[in-house]
Amino acid sequence: MIRLALHGGAGELALDRTDTREQRSALRRIAERGRQMLQDGAAALDVVEQTVVLLEECPLFNAGIGAVLNRDGQPELDAAIMSGIDRACGAVAGVMRAKSPIRLARAVMERSPHVLFTGAGAEALNRELGLEEVTPDHFITEVRLRQLEDAHARGVITLDHDDAAFGTVGAVARDAEGHLAAATSTGGLTNKQPGRVGDTPIIGAGTFADDRSAAVSCTGTGEAFIRSGFGFEIHARMSYCGWELARACREGLDEVRRLGGRGGCIAIDHEGEIALPFNSAAMFRAWMGADGNIHVAVGPDDAD
């Protein structure tokens, strides 16, 4: 059975005062593209990569074009991808010139002997492998510039949805062969200190996949997801304790909260069960469930 889920970030968004129709429409459109790929027999790894590429190209979310800006007004982009077949994975952090961070992450996985590249080394690899390169201003939008100005004025660092911005993106999938994959891409936190890296490119924290358990992509307070080892914790709770996916994710998020974090995750297990839990006010998400239809939701009880 094929399954798909994607997210567009989480945070303490004032749902009663925020128009989310554009974001919902974008999530539905991109999810429908992923569903079609799966129905056509595409591998889970290809589906999550392409889904995240489309999310990176959508300025409504905090990844690629429209990513939030660091303290110095620059985009610093992180991404990771992982296959559940053999735990093959690739990740990049702090890139400003790779047009598609998730494509670079996959190239790291398939075309290098390493897992994680950062900064200048990641940019050099992007050029060496012949992937598309842009200038940093390619990613910057007026909305993000205004958000940074506001964060500077208030002296705060914000999650992507705490200021009506829209967030970190990710996708998980189960293909017709029963294989799982996960991919995540982000610009991080508005007004973050340059060089800060969150959970997205940390395999076993913000991104994880193993055919024996689940594929997981996270969004929220990256430091808490790193400290909890969130992605691997889901695998461990399922593999070692025999827990079902929903319980593993729920108790994993309890640990994130205990560590002072908030956010959520999307996850699909080896049997095709889907979990989309979050402990913040909102998490933008879309999924294809057992009925084969695409569903979209933002708050706790507003699926359509």
Automatic annotation (TrEMBL):
SUPFAM superfamilies: N-terminal nucleophile aminohydrolases (Ntn hydrolases). It comes from the Bacteria. This is Isoaspartyl peptidase/L-asparaginase. It comes from Sinimarinibacterium thermocellulolyticum.
